Amino acid sequence: GTKPGSHDGSETDRDQQPASLEDCRRCGLWQSATQGVPGAGPRRAPIMMVGEQPGDSEDREGKPFVGPAGRLLDNALHEAGVAREEVFITNAVKHFKWEPRGKRRMHKTPAQREVDACRYWLDRELAEVAPRVLVALGSTALKALLEDTHARLQDYFGKVIEHGGRAVLATWHPSYALRAPDPETRERAYADIVAALARAKKLLR
Ligand code: URA
Prior knowledge:
The structure is a single chain. The protein is of the alpha/beta class. It has one domain: 3-Layer(aba) Sandwich (Uracil-DNA Glycosylase, subunit E). About 35% of the residues lie in helices and about 15% in strands. It has helices at about 55-60, 70-80, 110-130, 140-145, 155, 175-180, 185-200; strands at about 45-50, 85-90, 100, 105, 135, 160-165, 165-170. The strands form 2 sheets. A 5-stranded mixed beta sheet has the order 2-1-5-7-6, with helices on both faces. A two-stranded antiparallel sheet has the order 3-4. Strand 3 and strand 4 (about 105) form a beta hairpin. The protein is globular and about 45 Å long. Uracil binds near residues 53, 58, 64 and 91.
């Protein structure tokens, strides 16, 4: 590369400290993604919501939560009375991991080593935004935020825990509220997400 910290080879370099996401070779996911998707929202937003990884729409647009899961999240934020300006939205992993299924690109859950490699970017966002409250959307985000690969969503539901000087709340990933097979489960998951966001807001008072 020509820029400091950049890296041209297709090989990965787990110790690389890239200056920008487009140069990141800390894991191999950049190879099949359109682009890296950084977090979005105001610097110093008091609440940070963390998802898993960009989906198909996010990969194409370069912004987090702009597809179906993002629309659900927008509705949930609105219902919880949380303004978009109060939240920074990001993902545990910044590149879309997928496998071909016919003409579609099917989401694949990131491996722990990919989550670990991407912690570099999450740390930078945490330092820059300095949120007071973190909302983990799903288990990948929870594990990443707590730096505990064994953390299970069900053990953290409805609790506010402290980690690294910040309050952490855990709730479902919005995709679960979209895709759970039965409508009652989807509605309950959506209501849980709204409740978690309302609680996050309350913690700011
Ligand atoms: N799902 C996520 O976890 N993040 C996104 O940005 C979109 C869908």
